[in-house]
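Long-time lurker. I teach an intro course on protein structure, and each term I like to show students one example going from raw sequence to a predicted 3D structure in token notation. This year I'd like something fresh instead of my usual example. Would anyone be willing to generate the tokens for the chain below so I can use it in lecture? Attribution to the forum is fine with me.
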Amino acid sequence: ITATANAAPVTAFTNASTICQNNSATFTDISSPTPTTWAWSFVGGTPSTSTLQNPSVIWSTPGTFTVSLTSSNSFGSSTSSQIITVSPSPIANAGLDTAICSANYLQLNASGGIAYSWAPTSGLSNSFIASPGIYITSSLNFSVTVTDINGCTSSDSVLATALSLPTFTINGGPSNICLGDTAELVCSNSSWAYTW
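-- Reply from a regular --
Happy to contribute to a lecture. Here you go:
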């Protein structure tokens, strides 16, 4: 025997334990008996309203906001509201773009959180610390995702440009000289600086 409750739903819903600025948060309807329609209101959120059973919302500013759900079936409706807190996103900083001679060691430096994740990971000394190092052999754009104490994340990137090593030739003559004589050696690019 299947019993069906002939009653209006008692509205209730759940949401993510942490709601972060600019991150999508999903709200889940747990009303009972099962409703057939839903009318959500999200003060300060995008979208500000929804008729989905389990909508996702984004808040672009941190703070406290009211979320309301009215659930209905053929026997009536009821409304439930909650005050939710939107935590601010961390300010990720991957550092300034830089240029370095190819094959030299570059130290990356990120800030803004308590946990870090760099990409691409190949060649990095440790992709999960704020300041990993790498021997640069080609220009790379590194991105870092920063996580704060609330579990909120944001990302930033930094461009590391690998500069080609100089190539040059040395000309001089004659190839055979006597002890005490002098010979002039000439490098192929006179505008560069040299250390002999």
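Some talking points for your students: Residues 147 and 153 are 4 Å apart (CA to CA). The chain is about 0% helix and 45% strand.
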